[in-house]
């Protein structure tokens, strides 16, 4: 699909335009996901949009290289798109359709794709973090050059599993990067009410990790910090990156954020990494407004196509209910018809 003008090979301005494109694609994708929900075409009721957080996904995602793996939290659409996720198959997964990445069985919060290094989104706060330590250990033992990256929210900064993982990564010098997307809230709880200290880089350093904290509105700064930490991780010094941003909307689709006042929301939404990058493109990088509009139009067309694809795609066949559910070396489950009959008390 045409994604608008490219300045590949044009150094910093090409990078800036690429980061802008990725962020615009993420935001437009999320807007279409919101529409899918309103049209009652999404599977399940829980959808967590990453609008306002695009700088983290685009900046870190661009600094990673092919073969690197990652896990995400429940708000991970943006990260997967930044790592090459196909919007059609992602949207189909969110709609519970057979053409989705997991045949419609994972949905928004459990999407995964080993081919692109996506080791899985996870609905349990902090749940995806230890998997990257395992991936990092395998890379180290197999002498592979990859890094595994855990993306999680500020809520996970209060979870013990993060600190067990940091300790093991530092102890064994694993090629791992921990990325906290700090959108200031865990559901309705502000970080000030959840965390005794917000100096989270100091926590990471105390375990022996390299650490940095950046403003997620400045996507080039996110990219630079992630690049440095990923280079260190590839050399056996695991890293921590905190990316500060603001969750523009409620926690999930039904949340109208009654716990935030209007002034705070307005100030938060001014911290917009996309608007900021557009300004920089026009000013510092002298990109014509028309060129930026072409990127926006290409993203709109691409995500409209994805939404239509997801809506029109067929549902999974009932017979596929148990495929990919059991480990390949496990005995095959009883035929689906028997199981359904048993559940209905017919046998
Ligand atoms: C271990 C665990 N505790 C509680 C929950 C319920 N829960 C779901 S999302 C969420 C907030 C997570 O906040 P954060 O990690 O900051 O991610 P964000 O939603 O802000 O992206 C909570 C408490 C959960 N899923 N898992
Ligand atoms: Mg949060």
Would you kindly provide a brief summary of this structure?
The chain is 44% helix and 11% strand.
Detailed description of the structure:
- With 347 residues, this protein is of the alpha/beta class.
- The chain folds into 2 domains: 11-316, Rossmann fold, CATH 3.40.50.970; 318-347, no CATH class.
- 44% of the residues lie in helices and 11% in strands.
- The protein has 12 helices and 8 strands.
- It has helices at 11-38, 54-63, 77-82, 87-94, 129-142, 160-171, 200-206, 219-234, 262-269, 273-282, 289-312, 336-343; strands spanning 69-72, 118-121, 148-153, 176-182, 185-186, 189-190, 210-215, 239-244.
- A 6-stranded parallel β-sheet has the order 2-1-3-4-8-7, with helices on both faces.
- α6 (160-171) links the parallel β3 (148-153) and β4 (176-182).
- α1 (11-38) packs across α2 and α5 (129-142) packs parallel to α6 (160-171).
- The longest helix has 28 residues, at 11-38.
- The termini are far apart.
- It binds thiamine diphosphate and magnesium ion.
Strand order of the largest sheet: 2-1-3-4-8-7
Bound molecules: thiamine diphosphate, magnesium ion
Q: Assign an overall shape.
A: globular
What portion of residues is helical? 40-55%
Number of strands: 8
**Arithmetic mean of pLDDT:** 94
